[in-house]
Structure formats: structure tokens, C-alpha cells
Input
Amino acid sequence: MQDINIKITDRNGVTHNVVAPTDMAMNLMEVVRSYELAEEGTIGICGGMAMCASCQCYVKSNHELPEISDDEDAMLAEAFHVEDNSRLGCQIQMTPEINGLEVELAPES
Amino acid sequence: MITTDILIIGAGPTGLFTVFEAGLLKLKCHLIDALPQPGGQCSEIYPKKPIYDIPGFPEILAGDLTKNLLEQSKQFEPGFTLGERAETIEKLGDGTFIVMTNKGTKHHAKIVAIAGGLGSFEPRKPLIPTILDFEDKGVEYIIKEPELYRNKKVVISGGGDSALDWAIFLSNVASEVTLIHRRNEFRGALDSVEKVQELKNLGKINLITPAEVKGILGTDKVTGVAVQKKGEDAFIIDADHFIPLFGLSPKLGPIGNWGLEIEKNAIKVNNSLDYQTNIPGIYAIGDVNTYPGKLKLILCGFHEATLMCQSAYKRIFPNKKYVMKYTTVGGVDGFDGTRKEAPKAVVKAIQ
Output
């Protein structure tokens, strides 16, 4: 099973190169938590149901990501600090296709 | 002053189950929660979502779990202080505690069990620079008293159920209701979306989408808001009230200043024994605590609540002999006089 490399810029502007497994059904929010790149309790509050936007991030690379679901879209419509490249980390699954993905965590709100 | 044996801060699943375990030990509980209803995240964030890891329930909706927990502990007659946030704590000379809420309600308890989850739910405030200056001066994040809006001009922003529902409700109360949302689409119950459409067609709700409130006007109170449609110049709408409804997010809040040892936004407890904090008599159970290997799972909260109640009992009655009893053997004696017990088998000779 293949691990992939992800570049994550945390809320303090520090960039981390992390390795994420693709065989553990992990999403980006969980990867951030597993590396403790955001303070516990400030990310993944709803647990990954696209219901809180605490895992919002900006996608910096040109990877083709899975389409935004209605739930994610509606949540982003109510979140703050939203940009055109905003996504919810909990909706981005770790797959071989997104090897090299670069993201930045949105501010806490 | 409300008096009780165990004061539970947080009426989520862990807090509600504590009532049951305490009740078996004949200890009375009172719960404080910032939300207006019990259930915590299970009722506030995901009542309609299924949970698959509650032992004995292959699948249960979070809302139903809340209902069941309330049913399970109802014979122990818990008290509730809802819609108020625990603000301060004072330890008295006799080792008991006084906890006061943000509304000044005082609670006196022998034991304090913090079952606060990720913290108390606070409204999410939109990023408008001067918004804090207008709080309670025309800006409200939660509608507590609908009559406040009678014959007033009201601007609501948000795209979820609460924005839709309050726009509908206030269209019959306020003189003018404007609903502003960043998108044309709303996320809510189909009924609510259709009702808003109907009220819009009747001219009873002024709908502005896709747009955002960018500023608030007024000197000592709100007189209007600046609204901007995407890619256009901002314009002003006269308003007496601006009600941003963007949901709630949990914050540890005042509990963080109670002198408890905090790590990773959670309260450190002794998990080798009884989930007590660094302050004797104050326990922390469920998602709010942390210890090596901690998992934020409802089922772990139940376990922690159970051990914590045994320890609380020993603290309240240090010299009383007691051993844990199985409910199947001992039954459940409610404080309301009810009794549940296993049916007795018949001993009778067969001829």
C-alpha cells in the first residue's frame, strides 16, 4: 500500500511535509490531527461530518480533488474566511491521486 | 440556591448517564448546560445522524440516544439549569462547591463533575470589525425574546435552518424582515425553504442573495447594515436589529480559568483511579478530559462516569461500607418512588 506526501501549512504559517497512508480511510482533517498540526479541539469538532467547517483549508496545488458534495458546499456557504479554493479537510480522502497535495489551514473561527 | 450532591456541567451523553450511575448510589444530580436542551453535540450538531459504536445498539440516531439516556435516568429526577453557562467556581471551607452561571444562578454541590465535551456552545460571529461594539445594542446571535422585534426592522443573515425558521417566524412580528445569504441556495428542511419562498413572493420577506453583510451602521445602536452583493458596490439597509445566525461552535470558556490543569484544550485527570482533576472534588469525564491514551468516544465517557460516581460516593461518605451492586440483582429504586426489578422466578413443585 502506498503512502503519499502532503504539504500542510499550519495556522501559524509553518509548512510541514507529512506522509499519509492511503489504506486507513483517512481524510485530510485526520492527517492534520494525527500530526497535531492544529490545536486539539480546534479542528474536526464535528468529527468529520462536514457540519462545522473547523477543518477548512485552502488548496494551493492544482490537484484534481473529488467534487464538492452538497453538504460540504452548504457548510462552506456558512463558514467564515471562505475563498474560491476553500475545501473542508474532512471531505478530502487520502488517495494515491492526491500525492503531492499542498494545502493551508484556514484560520480558526 | 440550588443544592445537589453532584453538579454536572454539561448535559451531553456522558453527563446524562452520570445521573443514572449516581442515582444507583442514591446521589442526586443537577446539570448545567449552555444549550437550551439536553443532549450536547448529539442534539445540537447531529441529532439525525447514526452512531454505530454504542455497545448493544448496532445503530442509533444521536437524537434517540439522548432520548433514551433521559428516559433511563428520569426516576432519579435530575435538575436542569439550561441555557446558562457555568462561569465561576468557589470551594468552601467544608470542601463543597458553589458554581455560578453567567446569569447568576448559584448551585451548591458536594461534588462537581465536568462533562463539558468540547466546551460550551457559543455563537459563531461573522467577521465584521465593529460587531462586538453592537452586541446587545441591536446585534443578537441568539433570539431569546421574539417580542423584542415587534414592529422593528430586522436583518437576518445565514443560510441554515435557524436563519430560515426565524425569518419565517419574525415575518409576522417585525415590521420588515430581510434575509441575507451568501448563496442562492439554503440548507434547511424542505418545508422551511418553501415557506420562505412563499413569504418572499408575498413581499413579507425581503431576500437578498448572494450577498453578505459587510458593516454595521449606528452610533450607540444599530441603525442599518451595509450589504454587498458579490462583485457589486455595497448598499445600506435600514435596520433596528441585525441577527447573524451562523451556528454554534464549542469553546472551553470560563472552565479554563478554574485553576484546573489543562492540556490540549482538555482537562487533565487521573485515569488510573477516578478521573479526578488536580482539584479534589472536581472530576472531569467524557470528551472534556485528557489522559494518556484518551479516546473521545461516548462509550468511554460512560465508563468514566461510572468510576467517577463510585469515587464521588466515597468522598461524600468516607466511612460508609459499600460494594457495587448489579442492577439485575438490586433493581433500580427511583427517587420518585418507582422501583424496577427483575421478575421473580416461581418456586413450585410439579406434580
About this structure: The interface with chain A takes residues 41, 45-46, 49, 118-119, 124, 126-127, 158-160, 181-183, 185, 187, 246-247, 249-250, 252, 264-266 of chain B (CB under 8 Å). Residues 21 and 306 of chain B are 6 Å apart (CA to CA).
